[in-house]
Every structure is written in structure tokens, then in C-alpha cells.
């Protein structure tokens, strides 16, 4: 009986693909430092709207990389991730984390709407900080906190028909739906009430937040003199430059 010859099957070359990075859990992505550090928890301010969203650490650095609104698909993914962070923080009992996530979702809504209403995203001729600096230069007084500014800003006229307008409007609506969910979330509202009571008792017991800390970091320090003032201005400029670069990348259409 004749033998059947079998040909050797060549072995596959080793894969040159690099291994996929390990999947990070929600706990790894969104830690809860305020639960373990009273200083972080008590220096926080809920404030108005989105105030403090780009200054309060370490939550700014935790959440900012997930904030995107350039296109509708990008906004959908970003808003879903940030809402997941919000839900996680509520479940963990971290008011600071949940409120910061809420602020980022709200900023996705308002910032995208601004770029829909104004080509290039410039809503005002000058920012509150610019106006306060100009006023301080005239009077010789320290620069006031721009978040408490009483100087009226001049709003630029809205533009229509500019590139990306419809996309930014749609992106804004995506964030708006989830922002509304955050604002009426029972767990979040309960945490907010508990935190407000805790902070009130803490302040009654003599707790204080320094001017250079909390969500106003960098502004009041400008009123100082000498090395401290220069250092505060330098740090603020560096931080603001990084924030503007991040936002600039967001609004450049693919």
C-alpha cells in the first residue's frame, strides 16, 4: 500500500503586535480622594454653575482627560464616560467627585453651545479676569476674583452658518440630557445636603479655607506682593495655558 506524504505546515511568524493595555476599572479611573482627605473635601465649593471645574484638584486632572465635545460621536462617548463617573461617585458617597463630574457634563453642554453660537467660541470681547486686571491697574488695588466680578462684559454678536455649527448644537444637546439627569438624581441631592451640613459644622468649629486653596486658587493670590504674587501669577498662567490648549484641541474639526 503506497504511503501518503504529508507536507509540513509552516508555522506562523510571531506576532509583532504590542499587547493591549490592561483594562482599567471605574475605581481605577475615578478615585475618591475627598473621602480620605478632609482638607480636599472641606476646601471644595459647589458655587454657581461650572465655577471651579478647571481649578479644583485633584478632580480636575482626574476628569479633564475624559471631557470632549468636538463631534457628535465624541460628545456621546465623553458624556457617557462622565455620567459613569458621576454615578460611581454618587454610589461611593463622594459629593466632591459627583459634583465635579456634574460640572464637566454641564461645561460640555455650555461650551459646545458657545461654539455653536459664536464662530471660534469667543462669546465676550474681554474676559472678567482681563477686565478686573485693567481696573486694578487703574486704581492700584489688588486684582479681584473674576468669579465675583461686578464689571459687565460686552457680549459679541452671535454668528450663523459657520462651519461646525450644527455639530456643536447637537453635541450640546447630548450633554444637556445627562446634565438634567444629574441635577435631579436623588442620591446626588442627598449627598449634597449631607455635605453642606458637614461643611457648616466644620466652619462653626473653626475650619477655614485659605484664599489660595479651593476652587478660587490663583486669583486672590494676585493681590499679594513680591515673590508669592509672582509665583501665583506664573502658576496660574501655566495652568490656564494648559486648559486653553486642551479646549483648543477640542474645537478643531477632523
Topology summary:
Elements: H1 26-29, H2 38-43, H3 59-63, H4 72-92, H5 95-117, H6 128-139, H7 165-183, H8 186-204, H9 226-251
Helix pairs in contact: 4-5, 4-7, 5-7
Intertermini distance: 68 Å
What's the tally of helices? 9
What ranges have pLDDT less than 50 throughout 5 or more consecutive residues? 218-237
How would you describe the shape?
flat
> Based on DSSP secondary structure assignment, what is the total number of beta strands?
0
Share of residues in helices: 40-55%
* Percent of residues in β-strands: under 5%
Decide which structural class fits the backbone.
mainly alpha
Following the backbone from N to C, one meets helices and strands in this order, namely HHHHHHHHH
Q: How many separate structural domains? A: 1
Radius of gyration: 24 Å
User: Main beta sheet, described?
Assistant: none
Whole-number average pLDDT? Answer: 78
Protein name: DUF4385 multi-domain protein
InterPro entries: DUF4385
Written account of the structure:
The protein has 254 residues and is mainly alpha-helical. The chain has one domain (29-251). The chain is 53% helix and 0% strand. The chain contains 9 helices and no strands. The chain has helices at residues 26-29, 38-43, 59-63, 72-92, 95-117, 128-139, 165-183, 186-204, 226-251. Helix 4 (72-92) packs antiparallel against helix 5 (95-117) and helix 5 (95-117) runs antiparallel to helix 7. The longest helix has 26 residues, at 226-251. It is flat and about 45 Å long. The relative contact order is 0.14. The model is unreliable at 218-237 (pLDDT under 50). InterPro entries: DUF4385. Residues 233-254 have a biased composition (Basic and acidic residues). It comes from Cercospora beticola. This is DUF4385 multi-domain protein. Residues 1-18 have a biased composition (Low complexity).
